[in-house]
Input
Amino acid sequence: MTRFERVSVSAVTALLALVLAVPTPVRADPASCQMAIARQLMRYKKVYLKAHFRCLRQENVGRIAGPCPDAVALLKIQTTNQTVVAAVADACTMADLAALGFPADCAFEAVATGIEGQCAALQVTTPDEFAECLKCWKGAELSEFVAILFASHANEVCGGSVDATSPRCSELDCTTPFPAQHDLGSSGDNDCQIGIGRGGIRYLLKREKTLESCALAGGTRANCLADPAVQIKLTRAEDVKAALIMRRCGNRVPTADPPFCCRTGTANDCTVQATRADCLTSGGTVQEGKTCNGISLNCDPVTGPGQPFTWWENCPESATCPGAALTDVQGVTDCVDATADSIIDELLCVQFPRNGGADWPCPIDTPSPSGAFLDTTHPSLF
Output
């Protein structure tokens, strides 16, 4: 190598080092940021819902001890959580988030207790913190949805309480009478529960994805719902969900506390017990879908049309309490519709706060006895 070549190489190396040493300004791109938020949070929602579904399905038939979400479900959720936060932080700057209309805090509602109070208190000073904020609110709404679908495990899903103090769930509006909390076993009751759970989760994810795609293209809630192509997709999702629930539940009747038999002794011998807990305390075995015959003192199966299954007798998601009375599977399907649609509106309004919340307004779903809604919304968003 000649002297001239050595000098040229040294000059190029020095120039390259100087270029690398100069900080490269982060380019603001709100559109890419909004796309990343939508895609990553959809990924999070899928894992969150499916992990809960698998856990509850296994617990109901005794394959795992519970409670749900168990360690396996929590690991899946946490692993996805980390990748989602990293992806949003990589795609967004605080300037992007401000341009999209997001507030500088996490107080989307004026609440002070439970999981929503914890969400509202989160700081939002970095894109990572912003992602954690949105996931907190969405997790609370999704847990509420799972608790409604899996009525026999509502307390468990919500961490022991379904009201405003719940450490996991947004508050369930109308919960009286409260469903019996118990494992369903390998029974028709469990088959129905699986249909409601799977159908409801698939419907929520499909509806939200359809509306998200429309929103990302610039649509508002009003014109997206009026779009014929969107209507076809939403109708198809609703039909698939309704068919699945009907196939699994048939002509069963939602009942907060279905009959059971407390099997004791040998063969089918039974004793009459007031609650499942009383049966277990006395050393008996709970048999679902059966009753203790007061004459023969044997466990007899409940037969005929209209067999009960454990669910809400009034729709928990309602403008007034009690919610709509549920007397058949069609009523249950309508309740799942109303619940999913309301929760999706909550999720989308948080995710698309543009134009001061006018494009995707939040439902104000805190009921009062008179049916008038209470405004608990964030002043910077709505």
